[in-house]
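Researcher: Predict the fold of Fimbrial-type adhesion domain-containing protein.
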Amino acid sequence: MIATVRKRMPLLTLFSAAILSPSLYAADGNINVTGRVVENACVVAAESKNIMVDFGVQAGNSSLGGRGYWETIRLLDCPSGAKQVKIRFEGTAISGNEYIFAPDNQGQPGAAQNVGFTIYNRYPIDTDIKVNGESQPYELENSGSGSVNELDFGVMLRWLNGGGGSQSIPLGEATSTIQFSILYN
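Model: Structure tokens for Fimbrial-type adhesion domain-containing protein follow.
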């Protein structure tokens, strides 16, 4: 009987060690978390949450180069003491130009070719905003409960081959989704 126990002792020791030892884990990836805590934030007015810009029907020639519209984001109930905000516009840039937003339907059948969209500051001067970039600071004129602030910006349809000549644009529709976020200083 002692001989049987001695033969099985190494096997029992390994089995016991395996059961009693903690599990080992290896990291397979990382989670990077970032965020920003603000005291309060302005409320984006309902009519400013989904702004629709319709350029209508445009002639497919070089006159397309400068068709634009002014739009407004209305902020309500900005916290007292809030002085400035910026707008961050996010989307996909045209290859080779960090200031022009690519149409979502680019390269699809029926899509206009060689066009894109720019967003630009209204004040102090009309300057283009980079794709995934920030506007100039907007001074908040009103703050506190019941406050209303209007942030004006421009949206322009651009011909990528613009600048002279009468080269026509491959005709079709151009659509784009550009997201915005309000950044507080």
